[in-house]
Inverse folding.
């Protein structure tokens, strides 16, 4: 009998170690920056104004704008407007969705009108908003709220329609009042759909924000883009584009985190 230690045969067909998703995402971003840099380098001549669109100029301008705080001030103004628009959309959309989901006849009556309004671009209401509310924050917040209310309302209505009927029957069998049914069964059951609607609303809000802030105001990321264009400061314009993308991504991460936290608790 041999005293040698037994050799462990390698596993046949062992899978290679998976690359973390975050690393893949970082590699994807680096690839996009490389393509962006190469495209500008090939399409433009050296020492021209168009070279300000290249990543080195954009990132250098972004660092300068962050140091002096000007871009941060514009971003805070835009985030405040987005927050107000989303809050108004929640105040209108959640009760509206609860009513539409709970009252089929009301839903049948209003759904064609609501779908028609939903299909109208929020930016189409710009002239009406300016005439009714004037130039400034109120018209911008109105446009943002109008854009965000539909995903919130529709998601809430769908959440009510998908509630487990056994829970509702149990509540009725225990003689629960309407307020108890709403607070203990309906609202907890529609939180996940509402959070999904909020995430969709944030995406729409962030798209509508920039053109809405070109509506005669003197602050906000949309105004910053318009101002840099007029000043031919294209490196700062690209820095603003990067900031808009990064902030939008961060808001989406927050919405996804809230949804994951709630579903994990449930």
């Amino acid at each position: 009998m041999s005293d040698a230690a037994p050799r462990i045969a390698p596993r046949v067909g062992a899978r290679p170690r998976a690359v973390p998703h975050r690393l893949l995402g970082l590699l994807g971003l680096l690839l996009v920056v490389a393509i962006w840099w190469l495209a500008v380098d090939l399409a433009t001549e050296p020492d021209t104004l168009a070279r300000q669109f290249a990543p080195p100029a954009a990132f250098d301008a972004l660092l300068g704008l962050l140091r002096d705080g000007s871009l941060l001030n514009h971003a805070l103004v835009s985030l405040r407007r987005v927050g107000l628009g989303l809050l108004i959309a929640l105040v209108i959309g959640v009760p509206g969705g609860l009513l539409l989901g709970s009252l089929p006849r009301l839903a049948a009556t209003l759904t064609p009108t609501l779908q028609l309004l939903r299909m109208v671009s929020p930016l189409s209401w710009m002239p009406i908003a300016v005439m009714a509310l004037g130039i400034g924050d109120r018209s911008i917040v109105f446009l943002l709220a109008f854009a965000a209310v539909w995903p919130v309302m529709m998601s809430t209505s769908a959440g009510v329609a998908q509630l487990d009927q056994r829970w509702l029957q149990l509540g009725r069998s225990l003689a629960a009042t309407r307020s108890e049914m709403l607070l203990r069964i309906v609202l907890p059951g529609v939180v996940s759909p509402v959070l999904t609607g909020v995430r969709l609303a944030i995406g729409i809000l962030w798209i509508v924000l920039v053109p809405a802030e070109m509506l005669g105001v003197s602050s906000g990321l949309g105004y910053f883009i318009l101002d840099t264009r007029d000043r031919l400061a294209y490196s700062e314009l690209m820095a603003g584009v990067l900031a808009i993308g990064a902030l939008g991504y961060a808001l989406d991460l927050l919405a996804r985190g809230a949804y994951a936290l709630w579903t994990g608790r449930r």
